[in-house]
Amino acid sequence: MPHRGTLAQQTTELLQQLIRNRCVNDGTPDSGHEIRTVRTLQQFFAGSGLEGIVVEPHPGRASLIVRIEGSDRSAPTLALVGHTDVVPVEEAGWEHDPFAAEIIDGELWGRGAIDMLNLTASYAVVTRALAEGVPGAARFRPRGDLVFAAVADEENGSRFGVQWLTENRPDLIDADYVLTESGGAHAGPQPSLTVMVGEKGIATRRLLVRGTPGHGSAPWGARNAGVIAAEAVTRIARFRGTTVISPEWRAYVDALAYDTETSAALTDPDRFYDALGSTGALAGFAHASTHTTISPNIVRAGEKGNVIPGEASIDLDIRILPDVSADDVEGYLREALGDLMDDITIEGDLYGASTVSPLDTPVVEALRSAVRRAYPTAELLPMLGVGGTDGRFFRRRGVPAYGFGVLSERWDYGRFRRLFHGHNERIDLDSIDLTVSALDRVVREVLGE
Ligand SMILES: [Zn+2]
């Protein structure tokens, strides 16, 4: 077996191919084309004895799942779950071609470089290294199974990816623990690296607003549904709801090492808003970490230029904290809208609870020791993600899932969030090296020998 260079070099080269595959998921079923990356990965694994299984619930929306069987059926199993799709780009906002995967001044540029093709490539490299062994070294034999899953459609709710797998082929991705995106950013002067232990839930709703139609030439005193909707949107935007200080948020504020007064205010529900401004680029994240958020994202009213609309609708993107029920969501909306509720009906019942993984698992221990290998005095900083990842599908089945990586010190959480889905997405080669080395250690430690 030829030696193919270090894990970091292999990851860099594979990541470049994954970026160039341009698996852009624009939300339509015929986008994504993740089959391209499945083929790239099949070539990557060729000759290693790893074949895997391909599923394709819709033409082009393919996922590849590889399992290395362990020697002990009672030993814990681990799945590395990486999505292969990326979100669209606005090319005009980029300084370099988002799909050329050029390395410029030690950084690899391209859509997906940090979300999360870097991890998907690392998972593949670690998996192949485990199967092939290192030339000259004794071959590592895992006790528990290792699963590598390169999955489609994470960027649009995972209908053709992990959701499909959990509903139709749970046997393929079955594992005791899961690693996925998104962790590894730094917080504060004392080194603390983020590990995503859970994420908020979701409850989308539509508000139907009733007015009275009339002629646009005489608007005085009209009950224009568009005007009522505008007032409703404004009230929702101003609504503060309940500030909840979770243990994860408290730990995060501690790690950031603000001055005592700011830290105290940021962890006090009554004074939270006084200090929110001092969090700078983290303000949106700080707010979303401590609130069930309601964002009015689609507002529709009117069809004809001279007719006062009798109906309007507002689509709400609602992200819920742990322990918030569907009834609580309705309560927040009634409180925010007040007397406007006379003209408004709440529609929709979608409810996906927030999910959180335990911290007292052997995997978290392995993550901690891998982080300390890179940063000897570092602490793990458990975080609740404010968006959604494939981790939720596993946590809902009782399988702990952690968002893990090890990034270089240039990555604070503000930069991390800005480049996620942003212009000029890129990753430095040091971070690729740190992450793949850490994953290699974690896999070997968790699966034992
Ligand atoms: Zn992602």
TrEMBL record:
Parts of the chain that traverse the membrane: none
GO molecular function: hydrolase activity; metal ion binding
PROSITE patterns on file: ARGE_DAPE_CPG2_1 (PS00758)
Residues covered by the Peptidase M20 dimerisation domain: 197-340
Pfam families given in the database record: M20_dimer, Peptidase_M20
Annotated InterPro entries: ArgE/DapE_CS, Bact_exopeptidase_dim_dom, Peptidase_M20, Peptidase_M20_dimer, Peptidase_M20A
Cofactors, names only: Zn(2+)
Metal-binding in keyword set: yes
Keyword terms, alphabetized: Hydrolase, Metal-binding, Zinc
UniProt superkingdom: Bacteria
Annotated family: Belongs to the peptidase M20A family.
Name listed for the protein in its UniProt record: Acetylornithine deacetylase/succinyl-diaminopimelate desuccinylase-like protein
Species: Agromyces atrinae
